[in-house]
């Protein structure tokens, strides 16, 4: 019998992990083949069982035990009950129903790889009345964030089990700028204010207000440095925190992707954008032609200039800064990748030019003559081009050169197109803002005229 996603059981099913991150149409397709079973004071599985299906608790209480000793007791009010019960195969422990229990068996391959459906997605979705208990559901918005969407259930469970709860009163400072702290934070309930002082004697600048499901502190953990912002509780706040080492191994490292030079070339031909996050001075000295420069300290203020439709390839000279930039962009729904080599290590030679020169292009530089450490990396010589003893070799060399330049121009045109798209989006956004302001002013003016007439 299919599960009705608008029923009480359906609400539980929608919040199971990883089902919570599925779009409505694939989830409905899976629900059509689900069967909820019922058991009373009996075993859902025993130690040594090899059935590979995942078992999820829908209603009731389950006791997990090993050799008669109780390991854990779960009911649907536990966050850990949103994961499959003791999913290691063969089973390491027993799962015993305490009283009547309703549960669901799901094929692991099916839920991790939902069926590909041919359909036109509409804007329909199932609407639920939010109950009081839903206000404690911090995990759903967290799992729907871009960072966590593609994580495996095993890693998500490790993260959940590693979280520790801490509480703060209204007005209490949670983290102070300049101090060190070894935790990654998730807001479970409440609202926080983020502020920053550009200098010790400067006035405090309000950056943002954030609430349930948002995360805090990743930059300081990636850089292993003091906090750059002060975070204050605007209401009663409940946080969950994860130690730095677990944040690095379970969240940061699985989230980041690296590309080599050949992979970067292929991405650029598909419209990717190179984002150089070094300082303006470093960028001016030497950079990849066609790249965009947003220094890392300005990225949080200017990242919306980038198009979410294009892959972003991050380049720079510092691995840690590259990682922090990529993590920030991924968190905001960009496909960010990191070039494995730093700008200073990029070398273009005659041998690799055909596969490399087209996207690295010639480096722009303001001090090629003065900087003795920098040497031209792609030089055509008379002995190599145009004066070969063999006319056929000369023609091949000439065509190769032309092909390289055409690839270079194609990549630069793609970069220019990406810039134009970003500018178009910014202009459209500004237009919408101005249009709304004009509407409001018109309403005020009409109201004023009506009052004056009376």
Automatic annotation (TrEMBL):
Keyword Coiled coil among UniProt keywords: yes
Residues covered by the Rhodanese domain: 268-299
CDD domains per UniProt: CAP_ED, RHOD
Residues in coiled coil: 389-444
UniProt cross-references to SUPFAM superfamilies, sorted A to Z: cAMP-binding domain-like, Rhodanese/Cell cycle control phosphatase
Domain Cyclic nucleotide-binding: 41-113, 147-251
Key word Transferase present: no
Keywords: Coiled coil
PROSITE patterns: CNMP_BINDING_3, RHODANESE_3
Entries under InterPro entries matching the protein: cNMP-bd_dom, cNMP-bd_dom_sf, Rhodanese-like_dom, Rhodanese-like_dom_sf, RmlC-like_jellyroll
PANTHER family recorded: CYCLIC NUCLEOTIDE-BINDING DOMAIN CONTAINING PROTEIN
Protein name: Putative transcriptional regulator, Crp/Fnr family
């Amino acid at each position: 019998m299919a599960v009705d996603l608008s029923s009480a059981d359906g609400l539980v099913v929608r919040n199971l992990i990883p089902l919570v991150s599925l779009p409505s149409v694939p989830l409905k397709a899976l629900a059509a083949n689900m069967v909820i079973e019922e058991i009373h004071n009996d075993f859902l599985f025993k130690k040594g069982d090899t059935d590979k299906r995942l078992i999820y608790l829908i209603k009731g209480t389950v006791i997990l035990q090993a050799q008669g000793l109780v390991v854990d007791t779960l009911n649907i009010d536990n966050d850990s009950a949103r994961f499959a019960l003791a999913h290691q195969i063969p089973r390491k422990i027993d799962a015993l129903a305490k009283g009547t229990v309703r549960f669901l068996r799901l094929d692991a391959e099916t839920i991790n790889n939902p069926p590909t459906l041919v359909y036109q997605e509409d804007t329909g979705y199932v609407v639920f009345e939010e109950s009081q208990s839903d206000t404690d559901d911090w995990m759903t918005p967290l799992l729907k964030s871009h960072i966590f969407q593609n994580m495996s259930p095993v890693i998500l469970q490790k993260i959940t089990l590693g979280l520790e709860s801490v509480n703060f009163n209204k007005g209490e400072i949670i983290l102070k700028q300049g101090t060190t702290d070894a935790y990654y934070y998730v807001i479970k309930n409440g609202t926080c204010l983020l502020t920053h002082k550009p200098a010790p004697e400067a006035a405090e600048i309000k950056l943002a207000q954030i609430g349930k499901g948002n995360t805090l502190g990743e930059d300081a953990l990636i850089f292993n440095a003091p906090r750059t912002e002060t975070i204050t509780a605007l209401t009663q706040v409940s946080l969950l925190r994860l130690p730095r080492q677990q944040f690095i191994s379970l969240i940061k490292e699985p989230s980041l992707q690296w590309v080599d030079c050949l992979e970067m070339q292929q991405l650029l031909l598909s419209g990717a954008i190179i984002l150089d996050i070094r300082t303006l001075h470093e960028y001016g000295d030497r950079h990849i032609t066609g790249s965009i420069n947003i220094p890392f300290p300005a990225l949080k203020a200017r990242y919306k200039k980038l198009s979410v439709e294009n892959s972003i390839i991050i380049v720079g000279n510092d691995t840690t800064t590259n990682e922090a930039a990529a993590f920030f962009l991924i968190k905001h729904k960009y496909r960010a990748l990191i070039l494995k080599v730093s700008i200073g290590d990029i070398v273009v030679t005659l041998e690799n030019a055909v596969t490399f020169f087209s996207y690295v292009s010639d480096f722009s530089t303001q001090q090629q003559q003065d900087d003795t450490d920098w040497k031209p990396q792609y030089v055509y010589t008379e002995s190599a081009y145009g004066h070969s003893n063999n006319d056929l070799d000369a023609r091949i060399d000439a065509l190769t050169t032309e092909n390289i330049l055409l690839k270079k121009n194609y990549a630069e045109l793609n970069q220019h197109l990406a810039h134009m798209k970003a500018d178009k989006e910014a202009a459209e956004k500004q237009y919408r803002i101005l249009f709304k302001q004009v509407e409001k002013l018109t309403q005020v003016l009409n109201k004023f005229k009506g009052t004056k007439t009376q």
